[in-house]
User: Which sequence fits this backbone?
């Protein structure tokens, strides 16, 4: 569920987010989300909700009682798993003391906190509105609220960053005891201010050194890498993101949200997208005619599946590919064997996984499976 407002849009961000022009987002947006969800329900039949991810933007700009109204409305409309993972993204610069206790009471049981760095100069270069001190305070409140299942987002290869400073960020993050850590490289995305006016970034060799050394430090601290940019303690992998990476189904609710549903394999696997602008989205959702659907062509299914499955450190199982796409493994055996010969993939019992070389040149590996 996409809640698209931020206090200020960061210059590297290409997400569908919009700067807030008032003290709080309009609570009527919650009504639009619930109407959108209701319209989607006939597509999912008797399936239950396993995870909810409130992303943005900055969903923590919505008050706890508004989040409670949203989650209560979802539960009134569809069955939830008893252990459903319900995640809220939050910005340390928009969290008030005590708020996390309210979010937990509303039904949130996992938080993803956008720390990005613990270096004040780096945060300034990224256009972030928070300070390292505010991240420390937000984590203190998470622990006080009993929300130990939280993720910290960290970026590396930042303007002017050295491998030593990137490693210092990881050490500081681990000291706060998150259950999960996302560690990803800053990229200059088209359409962003950083792409139009690029800052001076570390070169590729330095960025790779940061990735390797930080990954080693995370492993030493007890975090196992299970995806290119995701590390978790035992039992704390992000179930919501795993569903994306394993080509599972999900509803996309909210302005600009994307979804994917399998109705008949392989003939009817659909992608959906909702209107990007919050006003247009809300009007369409309330009117019950929100979004567009396109069917994934059979020839595109291998790439659609492997685009994300190849990001997983353990790779993918043959059985999962056949279950999620409806295709026999023979359909892609030629490119699989070619990737093995190139040293980008290796066979394992029941499936395949990227080699260290394959992870480093992931785009090349993924491109092997284009239709």
Assistant:
């Amino acid at each position: 569920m996409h809640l698209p407002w931020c206090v200020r849009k960061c210059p590297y961000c290409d997400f569908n987010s919009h700067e807030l022009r008032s003290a709080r987002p309009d609570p009527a947006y919650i009504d639009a989300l619930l109407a959108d969800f209701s319209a989607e329900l006939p597509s999912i039949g008797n399936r239950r909700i396993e995870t909810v991810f409130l992303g943005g933007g900055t969903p923590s700009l919505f008050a706890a009682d508004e989040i409670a109204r949203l989650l209560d409305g979802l539960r009134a409309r569809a069955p939830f798993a008893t252990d459903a993972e319900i995640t809220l993204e939050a910005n340390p610069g928009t969290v008030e003391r005590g708020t996390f206790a309210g979010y937990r009471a509303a039904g949130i049981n996992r938080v993803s906190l956008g720390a990005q760095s613990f270096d004040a100069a780096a945060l300034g270069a990224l256009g972030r509105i928070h300070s390292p001190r505010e991240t420390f305070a937000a984590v203190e409140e998470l622990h006080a609220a009993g929300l130990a299942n939280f993720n910290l987002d960290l970026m590396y290869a930042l303007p002017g960053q050295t491998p030593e400073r990137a490693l210092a960020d990881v050490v500081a993050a681990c000291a706060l005891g998150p259950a999960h850590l996302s560690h990803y490289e800053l990229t200059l995305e088209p359409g962003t201010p950083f792409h139009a006016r690029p800052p001076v970034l570390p070169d590729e060799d330095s960025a790779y050194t940061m990735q390797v050394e930080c990954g080693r430090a995370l492993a030493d601290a007890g975090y196992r890498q299970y995806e290119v940019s995701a590390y978790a303690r035992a039992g704390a992998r992000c179930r919501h993101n795993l569903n994306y990476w394993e080509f599972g189904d999900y509803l996309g609710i909210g302005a600009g949200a994307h979804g994917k549903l399998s109705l008949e394999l392989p003939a009817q696997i659909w992608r959906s997208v909702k209107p990007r602008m919050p006003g247009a989205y809300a009007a369409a959702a309330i009117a019950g005619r929100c979004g567009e659907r396109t069917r994934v062509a059979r020839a595109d299914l291998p790439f659609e599946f492997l685009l994300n499955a190849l990001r997983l450190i353990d790779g993918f199982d043959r059985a999962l590919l056949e279950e999620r796409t409806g295709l026999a493994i023979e359909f892609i055996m030629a490119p699989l064997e070619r990737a093995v010969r190139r040293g980008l993939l290796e066979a394992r019992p029941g499936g395949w996984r990227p080699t260290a070389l394959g992870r480093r040149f992931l785009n090349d590996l993924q491109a092997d499976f284009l239709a």
